[in-house]
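Posting this for the archive.
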Amino acid sequence: MPSLNISFTEEEMDAVRAAALADGKSLKQYVHDLPLRELHRRQFVRYAVAWGEQHQSEFDGAFPDETPPARHERGVEAA
């Protein structure tokens, strides 16, 4: 089975150990689960953003006073 050797500073290792303990997992299991948890989080965020974009007009219609001012292109600052 493939494995990975990761270096941490003492402070980082202390933080990872504390996080594993708080999660009730062994250090090995905690570090194993981190990239999988991040993958699932990113999938959830992508789905949530897509869902929000698909239903934006419904929200705008239902809550006209909550509609933000003119939407700007992403990455373009107002002059």
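The chain has a mean pLDDT of 89. The chain is about 60% helix and 0% strand.
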